[in-house]
C-alpha cells in the first residue's frame, strides 16, 4: 500500500466567513469566497452539528484547519482561541520535524513503531490486529497536542491499513455484541452477513476509484435476477437494509484491504477507509433478521 506521506507545510490554520453548515454527504460548509461568491467546502459533519439549521447572512467568522486547502475542521472564531491554535500548530510542526509520518485525511500516523497485538482475529490467521500511533490535527483547534493517541488497524498479508478505530475490540463488541474476543472476526462471520445496501455501496466506491472490472466478484447480475430488476439502487431502502447476502464480514475486510494495497492517491485511500467504516458500521446484519421467529411471537392463551 502506498500510504500518503504527510507534508507539514500543507497544514495551516486560517479564517473564513461562513454562511451555513450542513451534514449532507458527510458534512459541508458554505463560506465567502473571492468577490463574495459562496463556496462549498467538504468538512467532517461532526463539526457541523452545532450549526445545523442556522444561516448567517453576513457570515460567521470561523477558525478553520486546512490540509492542502481542504477543510479538516473548524470552530467559531475567537481571537484568543485563534492565536492559541496557531501557536499550537507551530509547536506541533516543530515536534514532528524529521519524523516520517503519513496522513489519511483525518489522522497523522507513523508506521515505524507499530505493534502487532497478540490476539488473533479469526482462525485462518489471515488478519492481524495492529496498534498505530498518531495524532488528530483538528485537536490543535482546541488544545496543544502533547502526546500521541493509539489507534487500531488491520494487517493482512503484509499490508497495513490506515487507522480504522480508536479501539477495535470495544467497537466490535458495541456493534456486534461479540463475546468470543479470542476470534472476534469468526464470531461475527458465524452470525452476520453484509446486506445488499453494503454490496451496492462498495461497488459504487470501487468502480469509481478503481474501475468497473474490480466489482465482478460481487456478481451483481445474480442479485438483479433475485430482485427482478436491473436497477438495484432503486430498490426500497427497507429491502436493501434487510436483504442478507452471502458476503461475510471478513469478505468485506479482505476486499477493502486489497483496495488499500493498490491505492496510489490520497483520494483513493480516503474513499476506501470511508467505505470500510460505513459498511462495517451500518451494513452488517444478523443472518436471521427475517426468520419467522424474529417476526412473529407465539402467545399462550391465559385462561
Low-confidence stretches: none
List the helices and strands in order: EEEEEHEEEEEHHEHHHHHEH
Q: Tell me, briefly, the overall form.
A: globular
Strand content: 25-35%
**Could you give the order of strands across the largest sheet?**
3-2-1-4-5
The biggest sheet amounts to:
5 strands, antiparallel
Helix residue percentage: 25-40%
Number of domains: 3
Total helix count? Answer: 9
Structural class by helix and strand composition: alpha+beta
Kindly, what is the distance between the CA atoms of the first and last residues, rounded to a whole number of angstroms? 68 Å
- Average residue pLDDT: 88
Number of strands: 12
Radius of gyration over all CA atoms, rounded:
22 Å
In brief:
The chain is an alpha+beta fold and 303 residues long.
Structure report:
The chain is α+β, with helices and mostly antiparallel strands and 303 residues long. It folds into 3 domains: 8-95, OB fold (Dihydrolipoamide Acetyltransferase, E2P) (Beta Barrel), CATH 2.40.50; 102-182, no CATH class; 189-286, no CATH class. It has 9 helices and 12 strands. The protein has helices at residues 79-95, 168-176, 184-191, 196-210, 220-227, 237-242, 249-262, 266-282, 292-295; strands at 11-22, 28-32, 38-42, 60-67, 70-76, 102-103, 108-120, 127-135, 149-156, 159-160, 192-194, 284-286. The strands form 3 sheets. A 5-stranded antiparallel sheet has the order 3-2-1-4-5. Strands 6-7-8-9-10 form a 5-stranded antiparallel sheet, covered by helices on one side. A hairpin with a 5-residue loop joins strand 2 and strand 3. Helix 7 packs antiparallel against helix 8. The longest helix has 17 residues, at 79-95. The model has no long low-confidence stretch (mean pLDDT 88).
